[in-house]
Amino acid sequence: MFFETLKLALRAISRNMLRSFLTVLGVVIGVAAVIALVTIGNGTTAQVSTELSRLGTNMLFVRPGQFGPGRASSEAKRFSVKDVAAIRGQIGGLRAVAPLNQSTATVISGGQNHSTSVSGTTNDYFIAQDWNLALGRTFTPAEERGQSRCIIGETVRSQLFGAADPLGQQIRVGKVSCPVIGVLAKRGQSGMGTDQDDVVIMPVKVFQRRISGNSNVPQIIISARDGVSTAKVQADVENLLRERRKIIPGRQDDFNVNDMTQIAEAMTGTTTLLTGLLGAVAAISLLVGGIGIMNIMLVSVTERTREIGIRLAIGALEGQVLTQFLVEAVALSLFGGITGIVLGLSLGLVAVTFLKVPFVFSPMMVAVAFLFSAAIGMIFGYFPARRAAQLNPIEALRHE
């Protein structure tokens, strides 16, 4: 009996193919948008997690200021190289402690120029970041104490020197002239889409004297040794900095210390939330598609009033008529859902390839989209189907 009803429903749909296609278009667009956006969001989340995991779980980042209640970062007292030396000298279990100052500047070599990120730090930065050099060397102790030397990223090398050897070549960073002593190993884009290789690194004291013009240290990067608890290191760093910054008991810290686990949770939580919001916005178009199905089914009931009257007059039950029109609505919606899933996965694959993030297939999302499209057909098709089933056979037969 059900197969006969399905056959009648498919025959009715095939009689008006163009109208049926336009009816399901809203569902197709809605499902495709949800699948594509969730796929992009999942890929971005996976990329962020991968990039953060590469830094290891034994990293700590120390910044002035508190986010949320308390003093803003722009108002808080900055750190100094003495704070860096105190952390290195007074806290055990550390592999590296590096100050980090950052700015943007134009770098020039010969007739080539390029705008890039400039960082002032020490050799500990390369240890903390597990960042090796492809060419050249790191800073000598004498250079760290204040000699102008530069280590460049792969992007800067290609922009300024092309295929030529940059080692020993003189470049100008803003108003600072320095020879290139090293080239960093290529890393590519970060999880946030920034080019990690677009960077120039110089000794922190040179940066402070010639670039920033002050002795501030906006950020300290700490790497704990393997097997050392980052929670203990974090507590020790907080206690030391409270003492050095003369924060009395009961007062809130004017700095924050975060480990990679906290940062990873915050970043993945943010991307997951954004993915959910984008999916929810795209799902609104599914409701629009459902309304389109209900509208067309009401038109179909009106057009086929006489046919319905004949079926009822020769003995068809109300439930059979209800089932027929409900099956038509669900079939339309499911066709739109399946087409939307295929289209959404295709668009998602193209998008993640362009954005250079992983393609993360979510069977759960595909199943939810399929079931949701079926539910849309059932919900929005019920009212027209019920209206058809409750037609008076006599009145229906009189309908022209």
A few lines on this structure:
The chain contains 13 helices and ten strands.
Record the SSE blueprint.
Layout: H1 2-15, H2 17-54, E1 59-64, H3 81-90, E2 94-109, E3 112-121, H4 124-128, E4 133-136, H5 141-144, E5 150-152, H6 154-161, E6 170-173, E7 176-184, E8 199-203, H7 204-212, E9 219-224, H8 230-244, E10 255-259, H9 260-303, H10 305-313, H11 318-355, H12 363-389, H13 393-398
Q: What attributes characterize this protein structure?
A:
alpha+beta; 13 helices; 400 residues; 6-stranded mixed β-barrel
Q: Please, how many helices?
A: 13
What characterizes the major β-sheet? 6 strands, mixed, barrel
> Quick one: overall form?
elongated
How many domains? The number is 2
Total DSSP E strands = 10
Strand residue percentage: 15-25%
Strand order of the largest sheet: 2-3-8-5-7-6
Report the average pLDDT across residues: 80
The helix/strand order is HHEHEEHEHEHEEEHEHEHHHHH
Broad structural category: alpha+beta
Terminus-to-terminus distance: 30 Å
Q: Roughly how much helix do the residues carry, as a percent range?
A: 55-70%
Global Rg: 32 Å
Low-confidence stretches: 68-72
